[in-house]
Design brief:
The protein has helices at 2-21, 92-99, 107-114, 129-134, 149-166, 193-198, 228-239, 314-320; strands at residues 38-47, 55-61, 66-67, 74-79, 138-144, 182-188, 206-211, 214-220, 257-267, 271-277, 294-301, 326-328. It is an alpha+beta fold and 350 residues long. The strands form three sheets. Strands 4-9-1-11-12 form a five-stranded antiparallel β-sheet, with no helix packed on it. Its main location: membrane.
């Protein structure tokens, strides 16, 4: 009996001790008793290709409160890229190549974009002049009118030139000795008066060379119209100066990045905190082509819980700072990552 009692007591002791040492999870939803009117946001973010002079921190909340260029409790630290490429601005040709590098068209779309605007009663819509320009590296256009005698005299020469270039029998190369995508076409300003008015055509025939990405600027042909060689020589002289297919790639613009850290106090209502590219007194940025790739070293709410995260159950640690250590690369223009976080006041008791 004594031995059995000892065994029984030992088993009971082990079970009780195990139950005491084992944590059982229980979740209760309660009304938040926190009466604080503000909430602290802690951050440590590295902007990979943005100089510190061009970064500002701002907040906005649902009450309509907006604060820009906050500097209190914020530290900016200049950082190097990789010790190699120090960054440089995109050239105009690089921007155009990258903007249109993934452009593609269906057969029907291409037929529309390549067609002459000779008549409003053909099978094409001819509704978007700018799309025609954006679809080709260069577009050589003869603006004419049916009633114009000079246009009628010039028409055979233009048709020879148009056939030679569009068929590929006459190649026109860019500054990198690559074949440029050149389209030759004509626009009848009687049928398409609105397009000609928008382009400010004031005489006929008027012959212009447009470059992709620029519909307000063009090269005006003012040479002889006696043969197609004059037109070919003009086109080659202009196109041979442009780098349209140089294998452009996305790269750093600035010679440095910036690590920005600190905290801001915000109202305990829905809102945003934003790290924003901004102009300076000395330099104006083209914000559409600014690289806002970044790494979030730390982002949390409340009194900075970095030290306390180690005490949390492992399955909850990732929820305290879900963005920590993550990098967000922007590989296209006109893009900026947005991060959405739902903040819930959570208390852990043992």
């Amino acid at each position: 009996m004594t031995f059995a009692a000892i065994v029984t007591c030992s088993i009971l002791f082990i079970c009780e001790f195990s139950a005491f040492m084992t944590t059982k999870e229980r979740t209760d939803v309660v009304l938040d008793s926190n009466q604080d009117s503000t909430l602290k946001i802690n951050f440590d973010v590295t902007m990979l290709d943005m100089a510190c002079d061009h970064i500002t921190v701002g907040v906005w909340d649902a009450f309509g409160t907006e604060r820009q260029n906050i500097t209190k409790n914020i530290v900016k630290q200049r950082i190097d890229h990789k010790g190699q490429d120090k960054g440089h601005a995109y050239t105009e040709d690089e921007l155009m190549e990258l903007e249109h590098s993934d452009q593609s068209f269906s057969a029907d779309e291409l037929a529309e974009l390549d067609s002459d605007w000779s008549s409003s009663s053909d099978q094409f819509k001819h509704a978007d002049f700018e799309s025609v320009i954006q679809a080709h590296d260069f577009t050589f256009i003869n603006f004419y009118a049916d009633w114009c005698p000079h246009c009628r005299m010039f028409a055979p020469i233009w048709n020879q030139f148009e056939e030679a270039v569009n068929s590929g029998s006459e190649e026109i190369k860019d500054a990198d000795n690559m074949k440029a995508n050149v389209r030759v076409l004509k626009i009848n300003c009687v049928d398409f008066e609105e397009a000609c008015v928008e382009q400010k055509i004031n005489a006929f025939p008027q012959i212009r060379l447009y470059r992709r990405g620029v519909t307000t600027k063009y090269d005006l042909f003012q040479g002889g119209r006696g043969n197609k060689e004059e037109l070919l020589n003009f086109a080659r002289s202009k196109i041979s100066t442009r780098h349209m297919h140089q294998g452009a790639h996305y790269h750093e613009i600035f010679a440095e990045g910036c690590r920005i850290s600190g905290n801001v106090e915000v109202a305990r209502v829905p809102g945003t905190v934003h790290f924003q590219a901004a102009h300076t007194n000395e330099k104006t940025l083209n914000l559409a082509f600014t690289n806002v790739s970044h790494k979030i070293n730390h982002f949390s709410f409340g009194e900075d819980p970095t030290w306390g995260q180690r005490l949390l159950p492992s399955q909850y640690r990732k929820h305290a700072a879900p963005l920590d250590g993550r990098t967000f690369h922007v590989d296209k223009f006109h893009q900026a990552p947005h991060h959405f976080i739902k903040v819930v006041h959570t208390r852990f008791d043992r």
